[in-house]
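Box 3.1 A note on notation
Throughout this textbook, protein chains are presented in two layers. The first layer is the amino acid sequence; the second is a token string describing backbone geometry. Keep the layers aligned when reading.
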Amino acid sequence: MKSGRILTAALCALTCGRVLSGSAVLGVGPEQPRPPVESDVFVSGADGVHTYRIPAMIVSPGGALLVFCEARKESIRDASPTDMVLKRSTDGGKTWSAAQVLIRGEGSEAMMNPCPVVDASTGTIVLVCVNAHKIEKGRHRHLMITSADDGRTWSAPVDLGERITPYDDTFVSGPGVGIQTTSGRLVVPG
């Protein structure tokens, strides 16, 4: 494992800083297994970010790979000034978009614990995260953003607050990947 790199294996298995793609990894095609192809996704120090941590990856309804990550701007420490960022790949992880800041931490705010989930009934991508420095009413702020265009653009953050069930002042959502139950309910770990 190389220090300071986040590797992701194509189609959901996160490892430590590179994306692995190819028929052997994806399990498709009758041909002989090929060795995986690796590509860097997030590299510490890039774009003026000290450390990238806590990745979460999903496949969008249109087939794009989406990797969300904490961009810890000044330090590797938890709850240091952090933005929530995203990179997209439309070619199975061979190439990646530039990092897109989804939620900017203002001042000492830390946007942490990315947890994406896809609503299969609408095609909407939902990302839940925590603002670890905005404690209101004795709780962290849980934020949600959504994308209706395969992860290209995102809504403004919405505070989930009292909508978390069951509500608990000590609850912290994510990190990880959410699921959708057969009833249509979106479930986010915490």
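The chain has a mean pLDDT of 82. Helices lie at 23-26.
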